[in-house]
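Run log // design_07
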């Protein structure tokens, strides 16, 4: 499921996350795993979006909130 790109800066590189699958991949490789509150909430939102319980936009927002909390949001300008 596609959504508007979230740009993140991680491990010395800038990464574009534009789908629920890519967000899951990033979360699975995140050093803290789903153990932080915001990562856990993002995982729940991604699961709910896959099940059709919430919109892709809501899942993107939860992932974006995680990125803000983890201080990995990248400037795109």
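design_07 sequence
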């Amino acid at each position: 499921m596609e959504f508007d790109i979230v740009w993140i800066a991680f491990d010395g590189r800038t990464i574009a996350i534009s789908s629920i699958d890519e967000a899951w991949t990033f979360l699975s490789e995140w050093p803290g795993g789903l153990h932080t509150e915001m990562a856990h909430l993002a995982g729940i939102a991604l699961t709910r979006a896959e099940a059709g319980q919430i919109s892709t936009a809501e899942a993107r927002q939860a992932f974006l909130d995680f990125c803000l909390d983890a201080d990995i949001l990248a400037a795109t300008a």
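The two ends are 25 Å apart (CA to CA).
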